[in-house]
Amino acid sequence: MVSFSNLPLGWEVRHSNSKNLPYYFNALEKVSRWEPPSGTDTEKLKKYMATHHSSSQSTSASRPEGKIRAAHLLVKHRDSRRPASWRESQITRSKDEAMTIIKDHEQKIKSGAISLGELAMSESDCSSARKRGDLGYFGKGDMQREFEDAAFALQPGEMSGIVETASGLHLIERLE
Q1: Residue of 72, 77, 85, 124 marked active site
Q2: Which of 9, 76, 84, 147 could form a disulfide with 143 if both were Cys (CB 3.0 to 4.6 A apart)?
């Protein structure tokens, strides 16, 4: 039996209160994960998640001291530290292919055709896609060094160039 979100038997979508993001939980095996389980129909899952778990709302809390808020769009490749995402259970593209994809995303954003947040909702390999790529507030030491350095160098409203980390390739937009 497959749940209404088209996940394999035993799996369901739950919501993490601490991260304010959906995640996948298997009640039979008592395991949870951020990426969809093997055997998931990712096209049906994308539609389900867009309908039931997307959010264009941002947090309204004031900015904590020493922290910034940023959104990102992540393109993973097979050499990323975890080559899987909510979009694909196994990412097989090369780093060069990922670079071509993210350069295309960067061009679309810079041209004004679409915002980073809008594009992240369907194209980012990070579970933050459901929140338009919004990672919330973070401080020094909370993110991978390359990501942190790029994010803290931006002014609110600015977007980085392509940033490479162990997770993959990012475009980062400083929100606050």
Answers
A1: 72
A2: 147
Rg (CA), the chain: 16
Of 5, 80, 85, 126, which is the active-site residue? 126
| Backbone angles phi and psi of 59, in degrees to 5 | -70, 145
Q: What is the mean pLDDT of the chain?
A: 86
Instruction: Let me know if 105 is a catalytic residue.
Output: no
Q: Do residues 71 and 133 touch, judged by C-beta distance below 8 A? A: yes
175 has a pLDDT exceeding 60: yes
Q: Is 26 exposed, middle or buried (0-12, 13-18, 19+ CB in 10 A)?
A: middle
C-alpha–C-alpha distance, residues 110 and 87, integer Å = 24
Which CATH architecture describes the domain 68-174?
Answer: Roll (3.10)
Does the annotation count 53 as an active-site position?
A: no
Give residue-wise pLDDT tens across range 14-53. Answer: 877 666 677 788 888 888 887 788 888 777 777 777 666 6
Of 58, 89, 115, 144, catalytic: 144
Residue 56 annotated among the catalytic residues of the structure? no
Q: Is 170 known to be catalytic? A: yes
Domain ranges of the chain: 11-52, 68-174
